[in-house]
Design goal:
Blueprint: H1 2-18, H2 22-26, E1 28-35, E2 38-39, E3 47-59, E4 62-73, E5 77-89, E6 92-113, E7 116-127, E8 130-143, E9 145-150, E10 159-163
Parallel strand pairs: 1-3, 3-4, 4-5, 5-6, 6-7, 7-8, 8-9
Antiparallel strand pairs: 1-2, 8-10
Length: about 160
């Protein structure tokens, strides 16, 4: 009886592995990009680990350290730390964006630190010369120009603005 039970469990385990989400199988631990499309892996591949973009790197998501001149993600949720001159996130970002210009079109959670910070929906802190949030659910802006279109204490306020 026991060998049949073990065989059944083993078969189920193998079937589970075979039917696993193909997206996770495509993730790569490292990306090196000169400029898109001159990079180790296609822009359609998510990176989990480290991406170094010498001029311009583009991938669906990056989870981990994203370092380069221009860092671009296109979909899903990117997580971790992003350092560079320009950080472009077409979707969501969780973590610390530390670029001269930070943009997150979707939901941003964490810290944006740069000269210009922009996010669709903010739950966190923006520190920069110009800070802009379409929506702020909970957070703080510190800078010369602070704009919260929806949900903030004030639509525009210099030095500090917030939503709680």
């Amino acid at each position: 009886m026991k060998p049949i039970r073990y065989l059944t469990v083993l078969t189920q385990f193998v079937l589970l592995l075979v039917s696993a989400d193909k997206r996770h199988a495509q993730e790569k631990p490292i990306q090196l990009a000169l400029f898109n499309p001159v990079q180790l892996f296609s822009e359609n591949i998510p990176i989990t680990g480290l991406r170094i973009s010498l001029l311009y790197g583009k991938n669906t998501t990056v989870s981990g350290l994203d370092w380069g001149l221009i860092n671009h993600t296109t979909s899903g949720v990117s997580k971790g730390v992003q350092f560079g001159l320009v950080g472009l996130n077409d979707a969501d970002f969780m973590g610390w964006q530390n670029n001269f210009v930070n943009t997150t079109q979707g939901r941003f959670e964490g810290l944006q630190w740069g000269f210009v910070n922009y996010a669709g929906t903010v739950n966190g802190v923006q520190i920069g010369f110009v800070n802009y949030a379409e929506n702020m659910t909970k957070g703080l802006q510190i800078g010369l120009v602070n704009i919260i279109k929806h949900g903030g204490q004030f639509p525009f306020f210099p030095i500090v603005n917030w939503a709680f």
